[in-house]
Amino acid sequence: MHTGEQYHEFILASQRDRMVRDRFQKMARGLLPAGADVLDFGAGTGIDAKAFAAAGHRTFVYEPSEAMCEYLAQYCRDEIARKSIITVASPLACKVQAVTANFAVLNHFADHTSLFEELSRVVHPGGFVLANMLNPYYLGDARYGWWRANLMNLVRHGRYAIASESRIHRFAPRVMAQAAAPHFRLERLVPRGFGWATDLYMFLLFRRI
Predict the structure, then answer these.
(1) What's domain 4-208's superfamily in CATH?
(2) Where are the beta strands (DSSP E) in the chain?
(3) Is Transferase there in the keyword field (predicted)?
């Protein structure tokens, strides 16, 4: 179990994770209208929230982990004092143009139907949810027995879960699109083509209908 500080230092020390985070933040900022509010769902220690706030977006942060919240309060104390970052106890406590969920936050959910229904009350019409999720087709995981054992589940059902303490779930994009409907439509998926085999993460953009 990581403390907030340990997680923060670990993820910032990883060059691969920094590159993924930079791509995610760039995509989110490119989609956000100037000055639009955003909800960082599963905000961790506030790394993304701090970047969004610096770009002029008032950022609401929802993070259920107490350890993460404690470090977020320290890392983002200046932004919290200025109210450019606002902590919320529930996603329903805000109304925003966009929701971001970085680094596999949504992979902790077994079913996303009720989540997207809830987020539909948070995101303005025409707004979006941008999620960074684990890619179930990533061939780098083929060396693990759990990946090979679940290959048929992925083909048949578009989903599977790993038997572990955290029970991380993997989802095909079509399953996510079905869960998001009728409130959101899957508008963009990155990567495409050969990236399915080589990229650990996939970015899914859901547009609020």
Answers:
(1) Vaccinia Virus protein VP39 (3.40.50.150)
(2) 38-41, 59-62, 85-87, 96-101, 123-134, 159-161, 169-171, 184-190, 201-208
(3) yes
Q: Is 78 exposed, middle or buried (0-12, 13-18, 19+ CB in 10 A)?
A: exposed
**Global confidence as pTM:** 0.96
List, for residues 163-205, the tens digit of each pLDDT value: 776 679 999 999 999 999 999 999 999 999 999 999 999 999 9
Q: pLDDT tens digits, residue range 9-20?
A: 999 999 999 999
Question: If we measure between CA atoms, which residue out of 37, 61, 200 comes closest to residue 124?
Answer: 37
How is the chain split into domains, by residue range?
Answer: 4-208
CA trace torsion 187, 197, 194, 182 (10° rounding): -10
